[in-house]
């Protein structure tokens, strides 16, 4: 129900919109608290080599563990945080946490495991973004190649010039960048010629029906071929079944990610997962 205002106030909000606004105001305030009370967590989802099935990288995905409401999806609070500017504080926290994790994960490993971090357009185009990253790499003594950055095509809409400059700077620093959710924006093909990026992550929506829809299958195959002609690494997100895995392997996709292999999980569980993997025989050893 719409709130009663002053005597001469005109009420044009429907109660539903008012409710949504209240909900957003509450979420926003609570998100402020979450940052102060350590209610954010990073989970990590393995990304595997399609030839060997072995984890080569993990994607860091933020979680908000709300004391009363339980886990709130980043799909809900990241867009909100982007609007309120809170994404900057969240993004800084995520980067620092990811760098801590890179150091921990690689203490005992022989083959390096990279950590990919999602960066929102606002954070990516901020003037101190590169400087922050440089400081973190130094503080944790990390090779730049251990940290990967995922951005969507949205960074180009946010500020094309700055975004392209930042991409070049990252490349010069030795930090690899992936285009996330590839295929869902609309300028996809023209900018591929220009941008110094390393990977394309094919959006989950194309993978979802890849076994039923000939069209989706053709699109996915086309993206993979195109990417490889441009010397880009391909990643398929959202693999949930063995059938989907088989098709993507057959199409030559480089890396695979999805619930079929592993869900995003806290660091302790990831360590357990990786330990298991190291002890398990390779089901499909790479040639040589
Ligand atoms: P994204 O970067 O495209 O991340 C992949 C999303 O797909 C994750 O959702 C992941 O849990 C989900 N996923 C992975 N495999 C499967 C699968 O097999 N099936 C299905 N149905 N889903 C799968 P999540 O964690 O809810 O994150 C949603 C989005 O929120 C992310 O999409 C990313 O855009 C954003 N996000 C998450 N963490 C961060 C962060 O730290 N910073 C920023 N800026 N954005 C973030
Ligand atoms: Mg991502
Ligand atoms: Mg994605
Ligand atoms: Mg996505």
Write a concise keyword list for the protein shown above.
single chain, 288 residues, alpha/beta, 8-stranded mixed β-barrel, 9 strands, 18% strand, binds ligand C2E, binds magnesium ion, cyclic-guanylate-specific phosphodiesterase
What is the distance, rounded to the nearest whole angstrom, between the alpha carbons of the first and last residues? 69 Å
Number of helices: 12
Largest sheet: 8 strands, mixed, barrel
Bound molecules: ligand C2E, magnesium ion
State the shape.
globular
Q: By helix and strand content, what is the structural category?
A: alpha/beta
Helix-strand topology string: HEEEHHEHHEHHEHEHHEHEH
Oligomeric state of the chains in view:
single chain
Low-confidence stretches: 1-5
In helices, the fraction of residues equals 40-55%
Strand order of the largest sheet: 1-2-4-5-6-7-8-9
Rg for CA atoms: 21 Å
- Strand tally is 9
**Beta-strand content:** 15-25%
Nearest-integer average pLDDT: 91
Structural notes for this entry:
Residues 1-5 have low confidence and may be disordered. The chain has helices at 15-36, 74-84, 87-105, 121-124, 129-139, 154-158, 160-173, 188-192, 204-208, 214-229, 242-250, 267-279; strands at 40-49, 55-66, 70-72, 114-118, 147-151, 176-182, 199-202, 233-236, 255-256. The protein has 288 residues and is of the alpha/beta class. The chain is globular and about 50 Å long. It starts with 14 loop residues before the first helix and ends in a 9-residue tail after the last helix. A hairpin with a 5-residue loop joins strand 1 and strand 2 (55-66). Helix 1 (15-36) crosses helix 2 and helix 3 runs parallel beside helix 5. It has an eight-stranded mixed beta barrel, surrounded by five helices. Helices cover 47% and strands 18% of the residues. It binds ligand C2E and magnesium ion (3 copies). Ligand C2E binds at residues 45, 61-62, 73-75, 78, 91, 94, 118-120, 150, 180-181, 204, 237-240, 257-259, 264. This is cyclic-guanylate-specific phosphodiesterase. Residues 24-278 form the EAL domain.
């Amino acid at each position: 129900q719409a709130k009663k205002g002053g005597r001469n106030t005109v009420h044009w909000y429907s109660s539903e919109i008012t409710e949504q606004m209240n909900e957003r105001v509450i979420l926003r305030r609570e998100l402020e608290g979450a940052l102060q009370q350590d209610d954010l967590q990073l989970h990590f989802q393995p990304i595997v080599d399609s030839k060997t099935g072995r984890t080569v990288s993990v994607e860091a995905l933020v979680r908000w563990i709300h004391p009363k409401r339980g886990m709130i999806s980043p799909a809900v609070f990241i867009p909100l945080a982007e609007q309120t500017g809170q994404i900057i504080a969240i993004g800084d926290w995520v980067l620092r946490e990811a760098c801590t994790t890179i150091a921990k994960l690689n203490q005992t490993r022989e083959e390096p495991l990279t950590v990919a971090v999602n960066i929102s357009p606002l954070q990516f185009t901020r003037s101190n973004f590169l400087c922050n990253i440089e400081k973190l790499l130094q503080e944790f003594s990390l090779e730049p190649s251990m940290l990967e950055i995922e951005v969507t095509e949205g960074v180009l809409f946010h500020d094309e010039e700055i975004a392209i400059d930042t991409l070049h700077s990252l490349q010069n620093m030795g930090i690899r960048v992936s285009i996330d959710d590839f295929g869902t924006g609309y300028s996809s093909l023209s900018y591929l010629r220009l941008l110094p990026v390393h990977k394309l992550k094919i959006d989950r929506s194309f993978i979802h029906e890849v076994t039923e829809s000939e069209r989706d299958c053709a699109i996915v195959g086309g993206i993979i071929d195109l990417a490889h002609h441009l010397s880009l690494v391909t990643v398929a997100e959202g693999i949930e079944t063995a059938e989907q895995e088989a098709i993507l392997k057959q199409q030559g996709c480089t890396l695979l990610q999805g619930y079929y292999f592993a869900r995003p999980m806290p660091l302790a569980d990831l360590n357990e997962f990786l330990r298991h993997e190291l002890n398990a025989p390779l089901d499909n050893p790479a040639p040589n």
